[in-house]
Amino acid sequence: xxxxxxxxxxxxxxxxxxxxxxxxxxxxxxxxxxxxxxxxxxxxxxxxxxxxxxxxxxxxxxxxxxxxxxxxxxxxxxxxxxxxxxxxxxxxxxxxxxxxxxxxxxxxxxxxxxxxxxxxxxxxxxxxxxxxxxxxxxxxxxxxxxxxxxxxxxxxxxxxxxxxxxxxxxxxxxxxxxxxxxxxxxxxxxxxxxxxxxxxxxxxxxxxxxxxxxxxxxxxxxxxxxxxxxxxxxxxxxxxxxxxxxxxxxxxxxxxxxxxxxxxxxxxxxxxxxxxxxxxxxxxxxxxxxxxxxxxxxxxxxxxxxxxxxxxxxxxxxxxxxxxxxxxxxxxxxxxxxxxxxxxxxxxxxxxxxxxxxxxxxxxxxxxxxxxxxxxxxxxxxxxxxxxxxxxxxxxxxxxxxxxxxxxxxxxxxxxxxxxxxxxxxxxxxxxxxxxxxxxxxxxxxxxxxxxxxxxxxxxxxxxxxxxxxxxxxxxxxxxxxxxxxxxxxxxxxxxxxxxxxxxxxxxxxxxxxxxxxxxxxxxxxxxxxxxxxxxxx
Length: 538
Fold this sequence. Notes:
Layout: H1 3-18, H2 27-35, H3 42-62, E1 68-73, H4 76-90, E2 96-100, H5 102-108, H6 125-157, H7 161-172, E3 181-184, H8 192-205, E4 209-213, E5 229-230, H9 233-249, E6 256-261, E7 268-269, H10 281-286, E8 291-294, E9 306-308, E10 311-315, E11 323-324, H11 330-343, E12 348-351, H12 358-371, E13 377-380, H13 387-401, H14 423-433, H15 435-442, E14 445-450, H16 453-469, H17 475-489, H18 496-499, H19 502-513
Parallel strand pairs: 1-2, 1-14, 2-3, 3-4, 4-6, 5-7, 6-12, 13-14
Antiparallel strand pairs: 7-11, 8-10, 9-10
């Protein structure tokens, strides 16, 4: 027996129990509606996806070639179309997630309008986007199953039992579009209680993995901007605890916490760490401060000093009342941050870097793994990196180190199109292509994501259409650049009425009103000019 058959029989029995007043209820229609609404709450989604991530993490521990990936999305429709594309082309959503980027929430979802990534947007926008994404993913399930139900009815009407059985098998073994979301909570939007309250909302909306960073909440900066300020470890641990308590309160006992350190690019701290004895966690944090050794006689008004090894040390304090770290300590601080987070409840790491360089990432992760062998990284394949320039420079440096002739290249101008088809250009592109595979094998990267790719793709595709439509191409710009490609490439949105739920609604109307239903999908529906949408199920 399948779930579909079980539901049909259960509703048949329930219908019989309620007698003639339920005569209009069709048990199979109810079973179909249940199949189209597999997840009733966000907490069901959070548990289902947490189980997926935990399984994937264990599989990565056994084999680093089975890493996971995601793309950042800023709207439910974009996330939905991404997963539809994955199912259509790759046949399964296995190891593919969604990423919810705080950067894109700030830039695209705030009522204030576009904002920089500095935690100035409404924090409620974050769980709202989690909920929106899962609403659209669930609708993708409902739409695709609706097409299968329609095909099943057609096969039955035609008396084609073999086809009907094959379609029923697709229904019974249907793979959902619902996948894990790694959701960005920035620096927690306030004190630990505020972090806990927001984490609860995100989990209730369906988030199984929450990413939190060690910056000061009210000084938060994008990881690829200057002016980042970190907090002592004890402050950050309190927020990790707050997120864990939120998961446990809601019954998601295996929820995932991604601990992000911005220490590589953060040269400032808001305050000195509390320390009780030499070598404790606070003392280790303070040991990276940029200090001047002074005598008691040199103490000035309002000076703050640290005593270490019998010496008085005055941390360098800026006019902003922030303290600065010694230059060159970023990597060591990232290693300490990462080990400390994993020892205090985090499950995955995120080290924000200034460039995509496997050896640099591996250097830090190897140090972490000396202490915690199964440490795993979530890595930002950021659009803030100039990937072409970075990898061409890496290729140039490698060729030079190998004693190859690089006189044909100008290292400062390697972005030039003139280098696209050169040996150096091909080497760089191949390194970009294999970056995720190499990083997972050599640097402990479990999950690769691009934070804001769909921000860029939306701008690029809109530019492509606008420059032709408003110039001499007119409608041909849309037809040739969009609709003709949709038709020929099997993009389901060409039948946009179907994608928006019109056919689902028609079937529901028929369930509810029978032959009296006023349906939108009749002969006068212009969507009939297009072929049926391509099913993405296996």
